[in-house]
Design goal:
Blueprint: H1 3-11, H2 21-35, H3 40-51, E1 55-58, H4 65-73, E2 78-82, H5 89-101, E3 105-109, H6 115-122, H7 126-129, H8 131-147, E4 152-154, E5 171-174, E6 179-182, H9 190-200
Parallel strand pairs: 1-2, 1-4, 2-3, 4-6
Antiparallel strand pairs: 5-6
Helix pairs in contact: 1-3
Active site: 243
GO molecular function: 4 iron, 4 sulfur cluster binding; adenylyl-sulfate reductase (thioredoxin) activity; metal ion binding; phosphoadenylyl-sulfate reductase (thioredoxin) activity
Function: Catalyzes the formation of sulfite from adenosine 5'-phosphosulfate (APS) using thioredoxin as an electron donor.
């Protein structure tokens, strides 16, 4: 038994299927501080041991670091990808490559509205006229609907990415979704990410090497000049900094 597996078992709780939001929130209050300094593998192992198949990870396919890490801990784990209908072809290609090469269950989730239907109902190019609503329809709601099947979800959020994420806990309570939110990579630096990618041959979206360090939908993502904030290319020219998923 590896040291990380033993550590995860030390944190193991009863399977949470059927637990109420109040019980899940109480679980986080006891465990979050204990796992704050734990390695990412241990955090994922704890989540898998605690939530079983009611735990999934999400990926925007900027890279496959979290998906790769989770697949080494729990082969067959659900990886949720939100297909907004506005993705770069490189992002869809990265998703397809992850599904083909990693032992994960890739779940592609999309809104019930096609882009054409959204244009007809809300006006053409909603991402220009009301980007918050566009994100709500094509990202926030589809994810919330999908997470109804789970008690906990993991994200690739890192505190180093933006000042808005400095306080992101490793294990916390997502009150809006009523779910446990796990961020195994929260404490990772850019250098740690690069090292993990190099050491493990992890898939990276080709756009990352073409001036797009943070990748969203193509209409709302721009290249970033060297040295600028990596997320400055997202919703450039507006005050918007997040899609709303992590609000």
């Amino acid at each position: 038994m590896s040291a990380s597996t033993q550590a995860a078992r030390d944190f193991k709780g009863t399977h949470t299927e059927g637990r109420t939001p109040e019980e899940l929130r109480e679980l986080v209050s006891h465990v979050g501080a204990e796992l704050e300094l734990a390695p990412a593998e241990v955090i994922i192992e704890w989540a898998v041991a605690t939530f079983g198949d009611r735990f999934a990870i999400t990926s925007s396919m900027g890279d496959a670091v979290l998906a790769h890490l989770a697949s080494t801990v729990a082969p067959g784990i659900d990886v949720v990808f939100l297909d907004t209908g506005y993705h770069f072809i490189e992002t869809i290609g990265t998703r397809d490559a992850v599904e083909a090469t990693l032992p994960v269950n890739l779940r592609t989730v999309s809104t019930s509205l096609t882009v054409a239907e959204q244009d007809a109902q809300y006006g053409k190019d909603l991402y220009k006229t009301d980007p918050d609503l566009c994100c709500a329809l094509r990202k926030v709601k589809p994810l919330a609907d999908t997470l109804a099947e789970y008690d906990a979800w993991a994200t690739g959020l890192r505190r180093a990415e933006t000042h808005n994420r400095v306080i992101a806990p490793v294990v916390g309570w997502d009150a809006r979704k009523g779910k446990v939110k796990v961020s195994p990579l929260a404490r990772w630096t850019d250098e740690q990410v690069d090292t993990y990618i190099a050491d493990n041959g992890v898939l990276v979206n080709p756009l990352v090497h073409d001036g797009y360090p943070s990748i969203g939908c193509w209409p709302c993502t721009r290249r970033v000049a060297p040295g600028d904030d990596p997320r400055s290319g997202r919703w450039a020219g507006t005050s918007k900094t997040e899609c709303g998923i992590h609000a």
